[in-house]
Design brief:
This protein is an alpha/beta fold. It has a single domain, classed as Glutaconate Coenzyme A-transferase. The protein contains seven helices and 13 strands. Strands 1, 2, 3, 4, 5, 9, 10, 11, 12 and 13 form a ten-stranded mixed sheet that branches. The longest helix has 17 residues. It is globular, with a radius of gyration of 18 Å. The C terminus is likely disordered.
């Protein structure tokens, strides 16, 4: 059974120098309160694993961590939407390991499934080769990548029951379900915590066996109000 804790309690578990997977894609399906608490705690020297660098208009998501110089390494597929991450990469302050997006998620899936490697021809002849070994199979060259796990996976779901079963809302599922399998400690930030038996079996996107801790984030209505206001402010600035 997953344990319900506060955002502050869970964020305090993440020590300086930890590797942290964070779910979401440009703010969609991102654990925003956990991110904000890591920023408030000043947790530093993090290896941040997320599909893209993200600092959407209005100033939220994982870009707060790079803006606060709390990240020493970023592993993902794209950084162009985060000015602080781009700057840190250009100056050498942040080590960036680029992965093709499909390779990125397959490496995480391999870690969660206990597989030994991801073998793919994608990236041959590019700088991606720096992060893999090259081997030939059946007369064709492939890149062989190690699995990608982390000390913590911090993910976002719509609902959780007290067993830790999670359900998601549409595309907010994105990387969250795969990351849930590959963290040594999995923390799920959710809109709502419900009683066991409330979730229908076909609603469950992540079984509770993967989830260690649940934290209550913004409710759906709170999030709509907060980010509707941010969106309106952003439009006024255009």
């Amino acid at each position: 059974m997953a344990e319900v804790k506060t955002v502050q309690e869970c964020a305090s578990m993440v020590a300086d120098g930890a590797s942290v997977m964070v779910g979401g894609f440009l703010g969609v399906g991102a654990p925003l309160q956990m991110i904000d608490q890591l920023v408030a705690n000043g947790t530093k020297e993090l290896t941040l694993i997320s599909v893209v660098g993200s600092y959407p208009g209005g100033g939220f998501d994982i870009g707060k961590l790079t803006a606060g110089k709390q990240v020493k390494k970023f592993i993902g597929a794209h950084i162009g939407t985060d000015p602080a991450l781009v700057s840190g990469y250009n100056t050498g302050e942040i080590d960036v390991e680029f992965n093709p997006m499909g390779t990125f998620i397959e490496r995480i899936r391999a870690a969660g499934a206990g597989l030994g490697a991801v073998v793919t021809p994608v990236g041959i002849g590019t700088e991606v080769e720096e992060n893999a070994s090259k081997q030939s199979f059946y007369g064709k060259d492939y890149l062989v990548f190690p699995p990608l796990g982390a000390d913590f996976a911090i993910i976002k779901a719509k609902k959780a029951d007290h067993y830790g079963n999670l359900c998601y809302d549409g595309t907010s599922m994105n990387t969250n379900t795969t990351m849930a399998t590959a963290g040594k400690v999995v923390i799920a930030e959710v809109d709502e915590i419900v009683e066991v038996g409330t979730l229908a079996p076909n609603e469950i996107g992540t079984p509770g066996i993967f989830v260690d801790y649940i934290v209550k984030g913004f409710s759906t209505d709170e999030r709509k109000a907060i980010f509707g206001e941010i969106w309106q402010k952003g439009n006024k600035l255009k």
